[in-house]
Amino acid sequence: MLTVIEQYLSIAAPVEAEIEDRRSRFLARLEPASDEAAARAVIEAVRRRHHTAGHHCSAFILGPDGAVERSSDDGEPAGTAGAPMLEVLRGRDLRDVVAVVTRWFGGTLLGAGGLVRAYSDAVSAASAAAELVRYQLVDVVELGVDYAIAGRVEASLRDRGVRVAEVRHGLQATLVLTVPPADRDAVASVISELTGGQGRPVPVGTRWVQN
C-alpha cells in the first residue's frame, strides 16, 4: 500500500555556515531546489564562485517523498563527504534542498573520520541556521457564485480560516480555494451554509502550499 505524503519540510532561503578543522575551512551552503536541474545549477554556481577551493562536495534530496537523492565526494576519499552530508539532510527530514560544502585545504590531513565529522558538522551548522518551512498538500476547489453574493461569501470564508487563493471573473465569480484534506467536509458545510445550499465546490486538483 502506497503512503500518501501530505506534508514535508524544506528551507525558506539560502543559508551558509563555516567551520574550521586544523586550518582546513569548510563552507556549507544550503539552498532550496525544486528539481535536479536546479540543484546542479546551485552546485555549479558555488564551484564558480569559489574556484580556488579544492573540493565542492554536495548532496541533495528532492521531492515531497525524498525519492531523488544524490551525493558527490568531489575528489575526497569515497564516502567521507557526500554520504555524510546526505545523512544530515535525512536526519533533519529536509526535502527539496541541496547542500554544497566547499573545502580549502589547511595543510594537515584529517583522515577519513575527520573528514566525515567536518563535512557533517558543516551541513549541520547550516541546517541549524536555516529558517524551516512546512509545505502541505491541499485540494484545489473552485466555487462559482453570483456576483450579488460573491463579496460576502469570500469575506465569510476568509473569516472562517478558509484560504481563498484566487478570484476569477466571468459570467459569475469563481473563488479558487485551497483546502487541506482533513478539512474537506467542514469547508463543504460552510459553503452550503453561506450559499443557502446552492454552492457546489468542484475539485480541480491538488497543489503544495507553504503552511
What does this entry show, briefly?
With 211 residues, the protein is of the alpha+beta class. Helix content is 32%, strand content 37%.
How would you sum up this structure, described in words?
With 211 residues, the chain is an alpha+beta fold. The chain folds into 2 domains: 124 residues, Impact, N-terminal domain (Ribosomal Protein S5, domain 2), CATH 3.30.230; 75 residues, Alpha-Beta Plaits (2-Layer Sandwich). The strands form 2 sheets. Strands 1, 7, 8, 9 and 10 form a 5-stranded antiparallel beta sheet that branches. A 5-stranded antiparallel beta sheet has the order 2-3-6-4-5, sandwiched between helices. Helix 2 packs parallel to helix 3. The model has no long low-confidence stretch (mean pLDDT 93).
Which structural class fits the helix and strand makeup?
alpha+beta
Number of helices: 5
Q: Count the domains.
A: 2
CATH homologous superfamily descriptor of the largest domain? Impact, N-terminal domain
Give the number of DSSP strands. 10
Cα gyration radius (Å): 23 Å
Q: Helical content, roughly?
A: 25-40%
Question: How much of the sequence is in beta strands?
Answer: 35-45%
Distance between the termini: 27 Å
Task: Just name the CATH architecture of the largest domain.
Answer: 2-Layer Sandwich
Supply the CATH class of the largest domain: Alpha Beta
Q: What multimeric state do the chains show?
A: single chain
SSE order, one letter for each helix or strand: EEEHEEHEHEHEEHE
Taking pLDDT < 50 over at least 5 consecutive residues as the criterion, the unreliable ranges are none
Morphology call: elongated
CATH fold label of the largest domain: Ribosomal Protein S5, domain 2
The biggest beta sheet is recorded as:
5 strands, antiparallel
Kindly report the average pLDDT value. 93
